[in-house]
Write a structure and sequence with these properties.
CATH topology: Protocatechuate 4,5-dioxygenase, Chain B
CATH superfamily: LigB-like
Distance between the termini: 60 Å
Number of domains: 1
Largest sheet: 9 strands, mixed
Shape: globular
Helix content: 25-40%
Strand content: 15-25%
CATH class: Alpha Beta
Order of helices and strands: EHEHEEEEHEHHEHEEHHHEHE
Number of strands: 12
Structural class: alpha/beta
Radius of gyration: 18 Å
């Protein structure tokens, strides 16, 4: 049996984003600083960002991470899809850290194990920890976090395969119970429609983003089921929306939309990207 390395080696550095730390930092800073976000009211607790190579989706991701620029979070939960087939509903990392050219980020393995135990006890859902995975959609968000956030954070990596609303609710409810009194941020990793024309993709993506902005998980899953809009990270979206809503978030704001066509020049077959921020605007005060 092969030993699991303490640190997960990146399978995508040098391919999906630069392996040169200085070049990577400059590129990400440019994406974040060029994002012209509206004046966001309330407390940001969750963002949705794309996960393609930075050449294609980095500019859109910059809008999501501009919303948390200079903020401090003790724990960051990244909810992503898992693109390879696996029968398990929920996966995490068996490694102690993720490494990017910008440094290492520690995985809070104690949290992952406690979360897994609670999920199994309450709903018979077990988190499978995997090693040396090739999943890009979770890792791709980490360098943006490393540049945007004020101080180091602990990572809780969760790859959601289930797109069932009941399962997403069960995962989200237990997750919220564990993070309720902590300083946390949720990052939802998803792309939108795949391989439609620019015109079709724009219609599909507008519908999906509008469903997300309605802050209704039911609207989101119905949009997908009716074939009116698409997202490869649907399970991650549902889980993140439910968990953040339980925390008191009451507003979802669309920050940006683009497609791969702008970079490739091919508008006959594009991939859609969106950035959304979820905020808690109704902050109660004690008198």
């Amino acid at each position: 049996m092969a030993l699991i390395p303490q640190t997960r080696p990146s399978p995508i550095a040098g391919l999906w984003y630069s392996s040169d730390s200085k070049k990577l930092a400059r590129e990400i800073d440019g994406y974040i600083n060029n994002a012209d976000n509206p004046d966001l009211k309330g407390e940001v607790k969750c963002v949705l960002a794309p996960h393609a190579g930075y050449r294609y989706s980095g500019a859109t991701a910059g809008y999501a991470f501009n919303a948390v620029l200079g903020k401090k979070f003790d724990q960051v939960i990244i909810l992503s899809p898992y693109h390879a087939y696996h029968p398990q509903s929920l996966l995490s990392s068996a490694h102690q850290a993720y490494e990017t050219p910008l440094g290492k980020i520690t995985v809070n393995q104690d949290f992952v194990k406690k979360f897994s135990d609670c999920l199994y006890e309450q709903h018979k859902i077990k988190i499978l920890e995997i090693a040396n995975d090739q999943e890009h959609s979770l890792e791709i968000e980490i360098p943006f976090l490393q540049r945007a956030l004020l101080e180091p954070f602990e990572l809780i990596p969760l790859m959601v395969r289930s797109i069932d609303l009941t399962t997403a609710s069960q995962i989200a409810n237990v997750l919220f119970e564990m993070i309720e009194n902590k300083n946390w941020l949720i990052v939802i990793s998803t792309d939108l429609s795949h391989f439609y024309t620019q015109e079709q993709a724009t219609l599909f993506d507008q519908k999906m983003l509008a469903s997300i902005a309605s802050y209704s998980p039911e609207n989101v899953i119905q949009t997908e089921q009716k074939g009116e809009g698409f997202a490869c990270g649907l399970g991650a979206i549902l889980t993140g929306m439910i968990a953040s809503k339980k925390s008191g978030c009451d507003q979802a704001t669309i920050l940006h939309h683009a497609t791969s066509g702008k970079e490739t020049g091919d508008y006959h077959s594009v991939v859609g990207y969106g950035a959304v921020v979820f905020t808690k605007t109704n902050v109660s005060q004690d008198f």
